[in-house]
Amino acid sequence: MVNTLPMDIIADELARLRASNPLVHLLTNEVVQEITANVLLAAGASPAMIVAEEEVDAFAAMSGALLVNVGTLYPVRLAAMRRAVRAANQAGVPWTLDPVAVGVLDYRTEACRDFLACTPAAIRGNASEILALAGFAGSGRGVDSTAGSAAAQVAAEQLARATGAVVAVTGETDFITDGESTWATPWGHPVMTRVVGTGCALSALVAAFTAQAPNRLNAVAAACAVAGLCGERAAATSRGPGSFKADFLDALYLLSPQKLREQTS
Are 122 and 220 in contact (CB under 8 A)? Predict the structure, then answer.
């Protein structure tokens, strides 16, 4: 059975994130670095983008969490990602995989399937990406999904059991699973798909929430919920994609754990 994530869990996880202000190592899509960094800062984490092979080992090991996003993948970047993942695992640092456009292009698909053997803490993707990564028939169009999130729920559960990761398949409703239990986060707004980087920034938020998380399933689900709730709030005040981006960052910054708890009463 799938239940909607309670507001008190979202509030607790957000408060925990802000209290710890984790350092998050981002090996991410070069198109989205600015919005990704600003989203983490607004939410209460500390982003850093160290990409040189000569530096990623040391930095991944000292970080609170690591994100590997294959959106703009090429050989030097892939080599740095592999080194960072290895160092993170050796240091006990949780890392998150964002398998951008997996199932559409062979190079990134093979790379991400290799990463599955490297014990990711979390995997965040759209329905087409999760279906393809789990070995089902994918239906992506570039970085966009042509399948609804509900269509990938079973694939997400199977992928979680196979890898030990918490898997978040995001869309109109997000489903977040550890293979045994599944949360749903039904918040968000279609305008979020009109601003480049919102999905990639969500993956960075997922990584941030996994840092020192006592319950990784709740942490990943809370990250998805926070993004969706703030997306709704920003859509209500903005005039279009341009103002949405600014309003979204403001909504993240102003989101209050206390106000979230009051919504449960």
Answer: yes
pLDDT, tens only, 52-93 = 999 999 999 999 999 999 999 999 999 999 999 999 999 999
114-163 pLDDT per residue, tens: 999 999 999 999 999 999 999 986 544 444 445 577 889 999 999 999 99
Domain 2-171+178-257: give its CATH superfamily: Ribokinase (3.40.1190.20)
Q: How many Å apart are CA 216 and CA 38, to the nearest integer?
A: 23
**Distances, alpha carbon 195 to alpha carbons 72, 94, 248, in Å:** 17, 28, 11
Q: Quote the CA–CA distance of 37 and 139 in Å, as a whole number.
A: 30
Per the structure block, which two tokens stand in for 170?
């995001």
Domain ranges (residues) in the chain: 2-171+178-257
Q: Which residue spans within the chain are E strands per DSSP?
A: 2-4, 23-27, 46-48, 65-69, 95-98, 122-126, 166-170, 174-177, 182-185
Which two three-digit tokens encode residue 87? 């160092």
Residues comprising the chain, all counted: 265
d(CA 101, CA 231) in angstroms, rounded, equals 23
Contact in structure between 64 and 23 (CB atoms under 8 Å): yes
